[in-house]
Amino acid sequence: MSQELLNKAAEASFKKDIPPFRVGDTVKVNCRIVEGDKERIQAFIGTVIGRKGRKVAETFTVRRIVNNQGVERTFPLHSPRVSDIEIIRSGKTRRAKLYYLRDRVGKRTRLKEIQRGVEGANASEGAAAQE
Amino acid sequence: MLSALLGKKIGMTQVYDEQGVIHPVTVVQAGPCSVLQVKSVDTDGYDAVQLGFSEVKAHRASKPQIAHAAKANCKPKKFVREVRLPEPAADVAPGATVTVEAFDGVAFVDVVGTTKGKGYAGVMKRHHFGGQPASHGTERKHRSPGSISGHGTNRGWGGKPKRGKRMAGHMGTVRCTSRNHKLVGIDKENNLLLIKGALPGANGGYLFIRKSKTARVGK
Lengths: 131, 219
Hints:
The structure holds two protein chains of two kinds.
Chain A: H1 2-10, E1 26-35, E2 38-52, E3 59-66, E4 69-76, E5 82-89, H2 118-130
Antiparallel strand pairs in A: 1-2, 1-5, 2-3, 3-4
Chain B: E1 4-16, E2 22-30, E3 33-39, H1 41-44, E4 48-55, H2 63-70, E5 77-84, E6 97-98, E7 108-114, E8 119-121, H3 123-127, E9 169-171, E10 175-187, E11 192-196, E12 206-211
Antiparallel strand pairs in B: 1-2, 1-12, 2-11, 3-4, 3-6, 4-5, 7-10, 7-12, 8-9, 10-11
């Protein structure tokens, strides 16, 4: 009962149209950046190396290499500042957190691509619905 | 207009505002409360409104409880508190219902609750004493208060500890007022208040919420 009320309280902050991306996927995160009274969209492209947190507090970490320097950004999944997440390609992973990528450089940071067909997309949507 | 309510702490979560800023909020199920009694200077010596929240089953309530609530055409309530008023209550009558709409336009609130019980606690936890050194010959006294008095303390000769000397003892389960919490949101449909920050007591505990007496902004 109280859990239901908690969910209702946070409902307005909850996004419902989040694409079913997984750890290992390469994604493009479009975030809104407010500079003074102007607003623009900046994209951050990289590999999702982890998702953590529950419900409205969920965050995900995206890693990419910029100028030979590893850069990681952690986004709150439900933040209005994260306007859009596009899945560019899906990578095959055997763990939930890809922190081992931090110790790797160059070609070894690649993940084997997997084609998630209609079936796979449904499966991941099902997993998202269960959460 | 009365801007005070009784409620139940549900738990904490987070919400975003329009700018995308995260607010950590405590969700409180507040009201609907019934006005059980309106006190006035003539009859009681002071002006106040008595609110009741959360119904008790009739067979669990005492006869005085039932009869007191019946005067206002209400069921007996589990949690009853008074709201003191500076002047006679004009727009409230016994039996009236107060809902979260009482907080329309209120920016900051004070919350009164009962803190979580900590049991018999030592001085480091209870009074934030520093304890004794971890090493340099300290043995079995790392969390002790140290000396509590000498015979020269200002209760005269005789070596009694000073009255009010902070020592170990029972901690928690005391009334606590937490002031100036921003009221982030009101959910009228579900009777919820979203109050920024942590509030006293465990989830499921009863709280008294009033418009802040001290907040200088948003008055």
